[in-house]
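Posting for a labmate who doesn't have an account.
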Amino acid sequence: MSQPSNKKASRASTPKVRTGCITCNTGRKCDGYLPTPPATSRRKTTDPNARATPDRAILIRNTSSPPFELFDDDLERRSFNFFKTQTIPEISGFFPSDFWHRLVPLAAHHEPALKHAVIALASLHERFQKGDQSILKSNDAIAEGGFALQQYNKAIRHLVNPCGSKPNIDTSLVACILFACLEINDEERASPERVHSSERLCVPRECLDVIFTRLDHQRVQMIGSRPMNLPPPKINAQPGFHPDIPARFNSLEEARNNLDYQWHIFHQKAVDVHVKIISGIETEEHRAAHDGDRHHFKNEHRRWSTAFQAFLDVNAANMDSKAMQGAMVLKLTVQVFDIHLEISCRELLYDQNCWDVMYPVYEELIDIAAVVINADKVTDGPIVKPIFQMDHNIIGCLFSVAHRCRDPHLRRRAISLLYKVPRQEGVWNSLLTARVAERLMNIEEDGLGEVKCAADVPDWKRISDVEVLPDLQRKRSFIKYSRLRSYYSTVREPVTDVLEW
């Protein structure tokens, strides 16, 4: 047996690594560090291919690394895991979302306000899935849903009184989106271990432009106000979120973003015309401009449909079931867009019979919605699992049919689909929407005897300008609409109705 050598082992002459790198210390392959970004010049650039600068993107994180122990207790850890495994796949709906799948979980590891908001949302979502009515209560008892409220309050406190530096505007904007989800619900790539203090997580401002535009669209659909102004199209905008339509879309995301952009711009112009008409200041020039806008958007609509069909021709065979549902949801949105393009603002104000010519479109829309809802239905024994998604997909489209289509059969099919699966799509709740649509139908058909077709509902009985203001905690909803008081009336009068359940 050889004797151990007394010679001191020499140290390998290898480059030093940064102190504390777990990967290098364990011998695993190192992915390296991101290069330190060069100092940013404040000069404006005219290069169209230039990358986004801090003026055009928002940075999510402070300069400190996340703490070793992110959670205060097992309940927080469990809820965060629920968020990653259950909430994210559902809340993002039928479309891929880098914001939900990657950026929000990463940001939550560095911003305490976002961490607590995410945990609160996950807790409410779990109770929503179980049909727990305590999510409608505001008390501090954990057994009665108070854990989510406690986490929500912690998130707000971290925003108002941060422990370290003042939160960046990006943190506040992302928190607004999470808070919106919380208020609505009041009824793999996110691993932090390779995030170092020298890195910065970037959420492009353009990404939030798209999300807030969709939230605004829900508000407009429900209460009928003017859409917000969109920022000018940017060179580095999200795929498709600009006025240009390609010969063929490259992804569902691009097709969806472009459709959202086209719809938003059209709706802005339509509301402006509507205001001019009811204010009595519409001129022949305004009418000509509106007709020109409609003609333009009809052409854009045809171009979009052609580009989308070209995408499906190439990719449909390789799309999974969720992507196919997403494609059908886009077809639903296109159908509703088509209805509004065919009917002028003046017709909407003075002749509610104008909707009757859209019967074939209503029928196709309901057929598509039925396929999506049946494919999305998940049961746990006799209980149908409720669905929560942040974006509007099906409910608003079906409500458009249920309160504008006066054909009794199609109307009742639309209402039946709203009742079939409990869904929360942003501010739209399917069961509440079904009750509202049912109330409007009963008001219009009251006193008419048996209604066999749309023509059996005369114009003076028809309701228009519907706005819905839900109050889930008090289990009621305010419904505002306009109608003629009788056959002899010439002016539509505003009415406020209260629906309780």
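Reply:
Got it, the structure tokens are right above this. Residues 335 and 361 are 7 Å apart (CA to CA).
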